[in-house]
Amino acid sequence: MSTIIPVSHFVIFSAVLFFIGLYGVLVRRNVIAVLMGIELMLNAANVNLVAFSRYASHSPETGQIFALFIILLAGCAVAVGLAIVLAIYRNRKTVDMDEFNLLKW
Amino acid sequence: MLTLHLIGLAGFYLVLFITIAFAILTVSLRNLFHCALCLAGTLLGVASIFLFLRAEFLGMIQILVYVGAVVTIMVFTIMLTHGIADKSVMQNNLQSPASGIALLCLTLLISFCALHTTWPYNTVTFHSFVDAKTLGIHLLTEYAFPFEIGAIILTVALIGAIALGRDTE
User: Fold this and answer.
1) Is A93 left (phi over 0), alpha (psi -120 to 50) or beta?
2) Residue of B67, B77, B106, B156 to mutate for A, most A C-beta atoms under 10 A
3) pLDDT digits (tens, 9 = 90+) for A85-102
4) CA–CA dist B146, A69 (Å, integer)
5) Cβ–Cβ contacts within 10 Å for residue B124, how many?
6) Which of these, A54, A39, A90, A64, lies nearest to B71 by C-alpha position?
7) Cβ(B134)–Cβ(A61) under 8 Å?
8) Can you name the residues that pair with A30 across neighbouring β-strands?
9) How many CB atoms lie within 10 A of CB B136?
10) What torsion, rounded to 10 degrees, do the Cα atoms B130, B136, B141, B145 define?
11) Which end of chain B offers a freer environment for a tag, N or C, measured as fewer CB atoms within 10 Å?
């Protein structure tokens, strides 16, 4: 009588969130907006992991521990990334991605 | 009983839809501070999905770390840097239509593949109970090595962020 939500719905939701984050990374000109897209992608992966650890894994805590480590590393990535953004802003006075073209040919 | 179950299902799909809506707003708003607030809304939606999947400890950690710390440091950096928010400056670069179409096609492809796959299903796992105590025991016994490496990475990352971000004059 109680219908179980099929795991494919979680997979589709995770894919949609991932591609929205990827759109943010590819398209936005502000560096901080790119970092927000990266956070969306990591959260999509987390949702996928926890859904599969609840539905189809032999040990139900493995996916959650993996997601915990991803949260940890995402926090580290944002901290270091924003420190880099501050250093670049101090030098170039802009956070526009199109202006960071010193390494371009 | 059936009505309550249907209301629960409707609420779940509403939470999914609201999370996707906040995510779309995050990548498309012009004012960067509004984008940070929509990112906080998206992360709260993901935390409630974790609660739906009965991963309560992970949901609370998500709210503490992501909404509480990551969004806060992003708002700090937004306030410290002067972003491009003028109405005449375009906020997307030139790959906006092409990447939009390509990513939409990829989304439809993955959704089609996900709906036509028979995913495995484990009844014992589905009805099991994972709480903070179980996670703590597993973190310190079976996954102790990545736990310690994660602690080292966290220390190194924070020292590196301070070293990169400090004022050297």
Assistant:
1) left
2) B77
3) 999 998 888 888 888 888
4) 8
5) 8
6) A39
7) yes
8) A96
9) 11
10) 110
11) C
CB contact under 8 A, A20 and B20: yes
Residues B92/B27, Cβ–Cβ less than 8 Å: no
> Taking CB atoms and an 8 Å limit, are B73 and A78 in contact across chains?
yes
Q: Which residues in chain A are closer than 8 Å to B111, comparing Cβ atoms?
A: 12, 15-16
ipTM score of complex: 0.93
Q: Convert the pLDDT of each residue in A42-98 to its tens digit.
A: 999 999 999 999 998 888 899 999 999 999 999 999 999 999 999 999 888 888 888
Distances (CA, A) of B158 to A27, B144, B154: 29, 21, 6
- The 3-state DSSP class for residue A28 equals strand
Structure tokens at A91: 């030098």
Q: How far apart are CA A67 and CA A73, in angstroms?
A: 10
